[in-house]
Fold this protein.
Amino acid sequence: MTLSQDGIVEPSRGAVARAIPRLDGWRRGASESPSPSASYKEWMHFCVALPGDPAGHLLVNINVMERLLPTGPERRPRLIAIGVRGDWTGVVDSFDADQVRGRAGQVDLELGPNRLLWRNGAFDLEVHGAGITAKLRLRPLALPTVATSVSFGPQHSIHWVVLPRLEASGWVDLGHGRIALDRAPAYHDHNWGHFRWGGDLAWEWGFVNATSGGEPWSAVFARVSDGARHRTLSQSATVWRGGAVARTFQDGELRMTCEGTHGGPRPFTLPKVASLLVPGASSGVPARVSVEAKGGDDKLRIEFESLSKARIAIPSDVDPFKLVLLNEVAGRARATGRTYAGDFDLSGPALMEFVRG
Amino acid sequence: VDDPRALRLARQLEEAITVVQREAPLHFVVMRRSLEGLAAVVRVGDLPALRLALDEGPPWVRQRPDGQIALSLSEATLARLLCGDLTIEEGILDGSVGARGDLGHLLSWFDALASWLHGALRSPSLPNLHARFFAPVHTDADGQKGSRPC
């Protein structure tokens, strides 16, 4: 660790490299037997900014989801890869046990030809999906947060670890040729816990990426509410400067407001055939989101504007004739405010996720 | 079913129903209840008509032209539906999907289709079903046939 002139703790590369395997390993092995309640979920999420105006994005979600099937509890690893650079594209693949390599406590996981490895202080991520491929080295520039719990209502909670700043180098192909990346801004989080899709639950989550590596600030925000979004269960917004947290605003310190409706054509949907069940363009995605937070002398304002969206349809675990829609929204955002680490005014590409169902 | 292309489609439809019956039995029961006493005749491109009825079977799909519900679409339109590039509603509006029959029967058919979709999305075998539908077919006369995967 080093202490900068203005008192900001900057973690050394060695500290980051040592922390990741300890904090960010898979909590349960992908090939383990399902839990008795068949409600365990765990996923690692990577978002990489792609060049363009508006900026493109690659989202890779490696997950292990349990659910109760008529034939018994199922635990199935999946890979979801979606990307946008003008149009959205993507794929969702699931894997049988003989295609899975990885164990609890380690970051490394191989799903068929797709690989996530932790090597020499960086994530090596390889994606080989139909129409979307990538080979990336993602080097963390910040310490991961310690695992925190997020209430998902009575008897349910999930835990998450956030890494707001990474630099991604390598290439991404969204079906129109390779896009070379050299230290592009990236984001990562890791979530695990027990809950059921389609329960009385909705959430909004997002982050603001720095446009360039020279910008020291980044911000992540989230709100979890009941399904009708009448009651907030938990909410927070965290601001980093460089590799260290400058301020976390929690619950009563912040207010998130959604305005308007993001229109446009029927969104790109995964699995693709699920479009037949959600044929409309309406998605519940707002046109704009604002977050205002204040605590002591510190304050934060985030203004997010939705630009385009895709959705991932997940069968409800609760209602056999409903789907939960994860709306992935590319946009731009500006975050301004003040913490003990200084004033900030950050603008850049941003992603938000709106879970509705 | 004697036409080889119709036979392939009939087998795919049969398998699609069998997968839901096996892996999402609740959805199969609801689908069968929606279609009770009804038969849907599906015409894909220039293939012989296939009759789909769930009251008796398997097999649920046979080469017969009689039924209360008549559905028609091209092979390309069927692929667009399965790829999420087109919805049933959009297809009916732009004329690429034909749906004829008593309104009540048509609504029952769409309820059955929705039940099948919910069941299929919950069936671990859905990706295999999808892959097999889009797998290329080789015929002696025309070389490779089949839809481009989405």
